[in-house]
């Protein structure tokens, strides 16, 4: 009888099978690692894309803010220029209309039958409470004439001649009531002879603050 020993062959086959299994398992692990790497890489790519999108949005906002700020500075400069022009025009208007209106008021007070510009309600109250401070509506303004008129820094000085002191007081009273003048002061006056007419007259000076 012939006996054949098959054990070494079985062991070799089993060892080969185990080696194949380890190889397959290793390949599977490698494949899983590759897949995991692709998944991780894909997620990082998504995060990068999202971050880039956020950065782009922020940059757009920053640019918009810079543009708005730039326009704001330009608008501020233009507004400052417009305000300067407006102030200059206002000063010119004031210089043109203020002195003119004040001179017209002086002419009005020295016109026969006319009087100072005063609020009617205040004039009514004055006539009721302090009638002595009211102006004389029958005063003959031809009894007084001006020889000099100077205005500087809203302070005006009037110089002239009058028939007597009451005429000077009447002019000062009218200026005090006028809405164009305040702080009217009578400066020292003196009597003298008018060279043209030979009459005795009062040489006077008045100072007052001007409103306009």
Précis, in short:
This protein is α+β, with helices and mostly antiparallel strands and 212 residues long. Helix content is 59%, strand content 19%.
Which class of secondary structure composition applies to the elements?
alpha+beta
- Helix fraction? 55-70%
CA-based gyration radius: 53 Å
Instruction: Outline the low-pLDDT stretches.
Output: none
Strand percent estimate: 15-25%
Number of helical stretches of at least 4 residues: 3
The gross shape turns out to be rod-shaped
The SSE order reads HHEEHEE
Average pLDDT over all residues? 79
Layout of strands and helices, then pairs:
Blueprint: H1 7-109, H2 120-129, E1 144-152, E2 155-162, H3 165-177, E3 181-193, E4 200-210
Antiparallel strand pairs: 1-2, 2-4, 3-4
What features would you describe in this structure?
There is one protein chain. By secondary structure, the chain is α+β, with helices and mostly antiparallel strands. The protein has a domain at about 100-210. The protein is built from three helices and four strands. It has helices at about 5-110, 120-130, 165-175, and strands at about 145-150, 155-160, 180-195, 200-210. Strands 1-2-4-3 form a four-stranded antiparallel sheet, covered by helices on one side. The mean pLDDT is about 80.
């Amino acid at each position: 009888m012939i006996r054949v020993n098959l054990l070494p062959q079985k062991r070799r086959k089993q060892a080969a099978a185990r080696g194949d299994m380890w190889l397959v398992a290793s390949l599977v692990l490698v494949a899983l690692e590759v897949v995991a790497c692709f998944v991780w890489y894909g997620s990082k790519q998504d995060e990068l894309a999202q971050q880039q999108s956020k950065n782009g949005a922020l940059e757009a906002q920053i640019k918009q803010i810079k543009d708005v700020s730039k326009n704001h500075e330009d608008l501020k400069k233009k507004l400052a220029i417009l305000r300067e022009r407006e102030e200059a025009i206002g000063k010119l208007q004031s210089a043109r209309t203020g002195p003119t209106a004040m001179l017209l008021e002086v002419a009005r007070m020295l016109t026969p039958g006319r009087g100072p510009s005063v609020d009617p309600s205040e004039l009514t109250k004055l006539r009721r409470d302090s009638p002595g401070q009211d102006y004389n509506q029958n005063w003959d303004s031809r009894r007084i004439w001006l020889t000099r008129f100077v205005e500087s820094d809203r302070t005006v000085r009037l110089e002239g001649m009058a028939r007597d002191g009451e005429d000077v007081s009447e002019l000062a009273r009218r200026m005090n009531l006028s809405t164009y003048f305040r702080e009217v002061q009578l400066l020292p006056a003196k009597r003298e002879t008018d060279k043209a007419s030979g009459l005795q007259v009062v040489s006077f000076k008045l100072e007052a603050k001007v409103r306009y």
